[in-house]
Structure prediction request, 325 residues.
Amino acid sequence: PWELKCPKVIGVHLIGEISAWTSPKDVILKVADILTVKGGTGAIVEYFGPGVNSLSCTGMGTICNMGAEIGATTSIFPYNERMARYLHATERGEIAKIADNYKSVLESDVGAEYDEVIEINLSELKPLINGPFTPDLCTPVSEIGTRAEQEGWPTEVKVGLIGSCTNSSYEDMTRSSSIAKQAQAKGIKFKSLFTITPGSEQIRATIERDGVDQPLRDIGGLVLANACGPCIGQWDRQDVAKNEKNTIVTSYNRNFTGRNDANPNTHGFVASPEIATALALAGTLKFNPETDTLLDSEGNPFMLDTPYGDELPANGFDPGTSSFY
Prediction:
């Protein structure tokens, strides 16, 4: 007879509301901190609770995408209005209508039991940064500079990298762009090298049409191809010598030794796109955008405002150019 092992179900109860510098990426970074890279093995991770509704559909996608880093069989959210909104925006309104009719079977039953329950208060969750060398070594952004000095990790950020499949939604890109606009207004540029990897042709075309990428380009950012890119090591890196000890901050999902650039001494840290953008502006891990200041072009200190992003493009998505015939 053929047997299939039934996976466990780990429930992640979300309460409160996400806000300010905290992003959906911080939810999965915290879950990875709690469960470690093996804690989700053989389990389905199901997110539930009132906090779910404060997350965008693409934010939920980021969380589920990175569920692989905790070993999860799969990750799921209950169907809600944020998902319906996204389906309509991507010309899948008929699917949304069907889902609306069967909403009761696309969410957990009343009184559903879990093998393990984790609770995260989104209102109390602070921006996190995980690494180096493993996506479950978690540190609050407010403490990473001090910890890096204690551990002997390089504090200078050589490169900031945002995008890829995990974090290149329209919301992600507009939040990072809002930070770049502030830097532009103050006459400063990235202190680190900075790359942007659109996760799809649709995202590339839409952010280009709406001018979302331009502020990032104007302060030194480089838009790469719509591909995995440095996330899977497709990176002809030239800024450091081979085996040179250095630090990079990405919004990718994995940061194992040598993954991004084949350099075993690259200390890869994983954070949200907005945190990666802010740290690349400062050029150091010893910068907390919630409390610290940068210097404008005239040497005057200023603080970054809370990033803002549009959940969906006001003029709809641009599908771009199809490369399939």
